[in-house]
Design a protein that fits this description.
about 230 residues, alpha/beta, DNA polymerase, domain 1, 2 domains, binds calcium ion
Length: about 230
């Protein structure tokens, strides 16, 4: 692929430096309910539903099934703490990058598991992305790591999968995109080892938004031949 027709960006940890908030509120909420949840786990579970993350943690660290009450307790605490966190900042150069891609006739889309009520307004205001090009937690039944969210974006775009690429920061997001048959650039903005993102199937890896911008705006083609999942 010489240049893509569309780039599907994940949101948390790719456009916004928001994962730190999620990580610290997960760790703190779990701690209040007796679960010693390490920060790495928050990154490993990133993209899963709250319910899925809590169920997994109860199984792994308490050796028991979380009840509906357990799930509600931890999740409500997480929501309460999140409301008190500072507003996440946009990663350096990302606004400029999306603008530049659009000016080169490369469509920018967002594919996120988030269900934030102000998501559409925020992405319009910060990046000029229209609602049609946003697939959120409200549009999917399964969510990442299922390929569903990326397949929805692909179908809506009308492009072939060989014409689109994905930017993801999380193992489950990478798996979701690879299962949808898409080329993936991983941007490792978190604390996981690069290997974990590569082993999840990423075709390329960069370490921050500046490196990502250089890569996406370079004229080097993308080796879609590798893209066999
Ligand atoms: Ca993410």
């Amino acid at each position: 692929m010489e240049k893509p027709k569309a780039v599907f960006f994940d949101m948390d940890g790719v456009l916004y430096d928001s994962m730190k908030n999620h990580v610290s509120t997960w760790v703190e909420s779990f701690r209040k309910f007796g679960v010693n949840f390490p920060p790495e786990e928050a990154y490993m579970n990133e993209g899963r539903t709250g319910k899925g993350t809590i169920s997994n943690a109860f199984r792994k660290y308490l050796n028991k099934e979380a009840t509906e009450t357990d799930i509600a307790n931890v999740y409500n605490e997480k929501t309460r703490l999140m409301a008190k966190m500072p507003k996440p900042v946009i990663f350096p150069v990302m606004q400029k990058l999306l603008k530049e891609l659009e000016s080169r006739d490369i469509q920018c889309w967002v594919v996120t598991g988030s269900k934030q009520p102000t998501l559409l307004e925020k992405l319009k205001k910060d990046f000029g992305i229209i609602p049609y090009r946003i697939v959120s937690g409200h549009n999917v039944k399964k969510g990442k790591p299922d390929p569903e969210p990326y397949l929805i974006a692909l179908n809506r775009s009308g492009f072939d999968k060989e014409e689109c690429m994905v930017v993801e920061n999380a193992p489950l997001g990478i798996r979701s995109a690879k299962c949808a048959g898409l080329y993936v650039i991983a941007v490792n903005t978190g604390i996981l080892n690069d290997n974990i993102l590569i082993d999840s199937g990423a075709d390329e890896l960069v370490h921050d938004s500046k490196e990502l911008s250089e890569r996406l705006l370079s004229n080097t083609s993308y080796d879609i031949g590798k893209n066999k999942s």
